[in-house]
Design a protein that fits this description.
By secondary structure, this protein is an alpha/beta fold. It contains nine helices and nine strands. The chain starts with 8 loop residues before the first strand and ends with a strand. 46% of the residues are buried. It binds nicotinamide-adenine-dinucleotide (NAD). The site of nicotinamide-adenine-dinucleotide (NAD) has 27 residues, from helix 1 and strand 5.
Length: 275
């Protein structure tokens, strides 16, 4: 049987670890040519190595997707490596920076908008010549262009809200607006644009906060993780009774990326175990 993503050029942001990494490995197993992009160099290089070991193709583009000029560099390096055509973008990179509203700083608020919605917007805009414009030419030459895809990763926090996450929830809600709008703007070019809203996936982002996990952003320590009590509450609320593995989450991204979903666009798909 032909591989589902044979030779497709796919960019997955935040693919050094977690859901993005699992998606990259699955996409590569289905024949895709990957761009692994992450702020952390070692994990990104590790994923590239894993893919190459199994005979796949991958390059790493390391950097902060919120940095000025990085989205444009990401697209340029993709095109330099694989040629002037892009099939799939998965806007997945993200993190949380929690606080209740009355204690939230402007920096915390803005950081979430920057990573979850501004960076995807800039990446899509920079990719327009290699997605929308290529499709416009194909439409002129052959009628219907080939199907290209954008998959934006959101969260049920963006749909339902979440205590202590006004910044993250607002940014993830904006991802829905971006998705629906892009589906309308680029639908005529056969670019399917969908959003996957995850519930509770077991990754570094959702590890027990009590473990003291932190990342550094703009020279500031940002505590990540979910308090153990809340992790337990989510598990109890979840009809399937457990968080998903990164692979289970990534499988839904592959499903939407695959030709089986070529008529699905403008949708927000909840992958939550039933929450
Ligand atoms: N884990 C969950 O339960 C859950 C639930 C809903 C939504 N999500 C979303 O899924 C996506 C992936 O999260 P995950 O759970 O795999 O987390 P993760 O921390 O395991 O992976 C996220 C990756 O994004 C990278 N990243 C973070 N900031 C970056 C930046 N500025 N530039 C480039 N790369 C950056 C990190 O280095 C990391 O490798 C995120 O958008 C997250 O909001 C996760």
């Amino acid at each position: 049987m032909e591989k589902m993503l044979k030779d497709k050029v796919c960019i997955i942001t935040g693919s050094g670890r977690g859901i993005g990494r699992a998606a990259a490995l699955m996409f590569a197993a289905e024949g895709a040519r990957l761009v692994i992009t992450d702020i952390d160099e070692a994990p990104a290089a590790g994923v590239v190595e894993e893919i190459k070991k199994t005979g796949g193709q991958a390059i790493a583009v390391v950097g902060d997707i919120t940095a000025e000029g990085f989205p444009e560099r990401l697209i340029k390096e993709t095109v330099d490596a694989y040629g002037p055509d892009i099939d799939i973008i998965v806007n997945n990179a993200g993190y949380t920076w929690d606080a209740v509203v009355h204690k939230m700083t402007d920096k915390q608020w803005q950081a979430m908008l920057d990573i979850h919605v501004t960076a995807p917007f800039r990446i899509i805009r920079a990719a327009a010549p290699y997605m929308r414009d290529n499709a416009a030419r194909e439409r002129e030459q052959q009628g219907r262009p080939k199907c290209r895809k954008i998959i934006n990763i959101s969260s049920i926090a963006g749909l339902d809200g979440n205590f202590g996450q006004a910044n993250y929830s607002s940014a993830k809600a904006a991802v829905t607006g971006l998705t629906r709008t892009m589906a309308k703007e680029w639908g005529p070019y056969n670019v399917c644009v969908n959003c996957i809203a995850f519930g509770f996936i077991e990754t570094r982002l959702t590890q027990a906060k009590e473990k003291g996990g932190a990342i550094v952003r703009d020279g500031e320590q940002v505590a990540i993780g979910v308090p153990e009590k809340i992790r337990q509450m989510f598990t109890l609320m979840c009809p399937l009774g457990r968080p998903a593995t990164p692979e289970e989450a990534a499988a839904s991204i592959l499903m939407v990326a695959s030709p089986l979903a070529d008529y699905i666009t403008g949708q927000v798909i909840r992958v939550t175990g039933g929450i």
